[in-house]
């Protein structure tokens, strides 16, 4: 099981205007024209947007502010993104990919320990997902606060529906499809609500305690004793 930390995964540095000559948040100039340079520029823009969306909110952040913090021209931004909304969607996609990797890694670990029962795999994935919410709590908070681009609610709903369907596959255990879907929807909805709570917690101890209780509750729904679901 991944260990919770107080550090934010991939968290950018403090928001400040780059010093003259700085090209990115880490002070390195991208090499223009090269593939590495283009990738570095995109990463700098994403890091700057993540910082500003976290500190100021999506609506209050301007494209100019993003480019100033990244140390990149507005023209370069439009090479990578059509507008600010597209940057936000890219941030969401990166977040989803990190969460998917955390869950895959958790499932790989428990399978390596000999666990194959689908409900136990589901519990491991749930714990990893909620721990990821804490690790990426700055982005999680931005995504949860409701201040998002027009159309993002549709993207979020589509992702949520797909996530619930994947959960239903793991939870199918000789029950009817209707019963399985009901359980998957209830648990997925609860996990989403818990994520909004987790990002507001004060420290790692509170996050760990909250996640532990959440996983125990999911275990009860799936028919496990509390002792079987607590982290060892």
TrEMBL record:
Coiled coil stretches, renumbered: none
Gene3D superfamilies linked: Tetracycline Repressor, domain 2
Q: Please list where the region (Disordered) is annotated.
A: 1-41
Assigned keywords, A-Z: DNA-binding, Transcription, Transcription regulation
Q: Does this UniProt record's set of keywords contain DNA-binding? A: yes
Q: Does the keyword Transcription apply?
A: yes
The record's section on InterPro entries has: DNA-bd_HTH_TetR-type_CS (IPR023772), Homeodomain-like_sf (IPR009057), HTH_TetR (IPR001647)
Annotated GO MF terms: DNA binding
DNA-binding annotation, residue ranges on this chain: 62-81
Q: Domain named HTH tetR-type: which ranges?
A: 39-99
* Compositionally skewed regions (Basic and acidic residues) per UniProt: 11-20
Question: Which protein, by its recorded name, is this?
Answer: AcrR family transcriptional regulator
């Amino acid at each position: 099981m991944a260990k919770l930390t107080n550090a934010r995964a991939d968290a950018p540095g403090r928001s400040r205007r780059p010093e003259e000559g700085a090209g990115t948040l880490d002070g390195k100039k991208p090499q223009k024209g090269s593939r590495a340079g283009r990738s570095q520029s995109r990463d700098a823009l994403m890091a700057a947007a993540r910082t500003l969306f976290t500190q100021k909110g999506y609506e209050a952040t301007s494209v100019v502010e993003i480019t100033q913090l990244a140390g990149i021209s507005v023209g370069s931004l439009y090479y990578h993104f059509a507008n600010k909304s597209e940057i936000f969607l890219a941030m969401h996609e990166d977040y989803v990919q990190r969460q998917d990797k955390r869950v895959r890694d958790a499932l790989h670990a428990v399978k390596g320990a000999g666990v194959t029962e689908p409900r136990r795999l589901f519990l491991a994935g749930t714990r990893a997902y909620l721990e990821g919410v804490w690790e990426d709590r700055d982005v999680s908070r931005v995504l949860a606060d409701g201040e998002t681009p027009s159309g993002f609610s549709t993207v979020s709903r589509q992702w949520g529906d797909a996530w619930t369907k994947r959960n239903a596959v793991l939870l199918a255990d000789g029950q009817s499809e209707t019963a399985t879907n009901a359980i998957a929807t209830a648990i997925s909805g609860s996990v989403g609500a818990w994520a909004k709570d987790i990002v507001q917690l004060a420290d790692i101890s509170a996050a760990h305690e909250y996640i532990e209780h959440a996983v125990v509750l999911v275990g009860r729904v799936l028919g496990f004793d509390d002792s079987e679901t607590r982290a060892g």
